[in-house]
Specification:
Layout (H helix, E strand, L loop, with lengths): L1 H8 L3 E8 L6 E5 L10 E2 L2 E3 L6 H13 L9 E9 L4 E9 L13 E5 L14 H10 L1
Parallel strand pairs: 1-6
Antiparallel strand pairs: 1-4, 2-3, 2-7, 5-6
The structure holds 8-OXO-2'-deoxyguanosine-5'-triphosphate.
Amino acid sequence: MTAIILSQAGLPLFVTAVALVDADGRVLVQQRSAHRSMAGLWEFPGGKVEDGETPEVALVRELREELGIETSSACLAPACFASESLGDRHLILLLYVCRKWSGTPRPLDSAGLKWVRPVDLHGLEMPPADKPLIGLLEALL
Ligand SMILES: Nc1nc2c([nH]c(=O)n2[C@H]2C[C@H](O)[C@@H](COP(=O)(O)OP(=O)(O)OP(=O)(O)O)O2)c(=O)[nH]1
């Protein structure tokens, strides 16, 4: 049954995202800008995996584009994932943890950034796919 649903809707949408963790154990989230779907919600930096990219390569690219920071695949530790319907597509959200990068994150493609303690993620308005990831992340950090 699942295979039939997926073939009707096309392949799932693979999105790769990261919990950047600073020296105080806080996590960076960014606010989705007004022109985007789910505008105003807080999310982990990242984006769609493009054709020919690994999730890690896509994430290194997204972090450069969205935050102006540099990291490498070796600094991305797979953490957990979410599987959620977006309506017309099915989202697979791959969440990594990263503690090592160069540069200072800037909101190059979002309405704003903030560093929050993992427990405080529960109080943020985040996309539905992110909700089950919060507890998993808390247990990992
Ligand atoms: N980066 C990121 N995307 C997320 C998270 N949670 C979540 O549902 N998403 C969804 C939102 C988008 O549908 C998709 C990421 O797409 P994107 O960031 O590359 O592109 P976009 O905002 O222009 O997406 P869209 O407006 O076309 O939906 O994954 C998250 O924590 N981080």
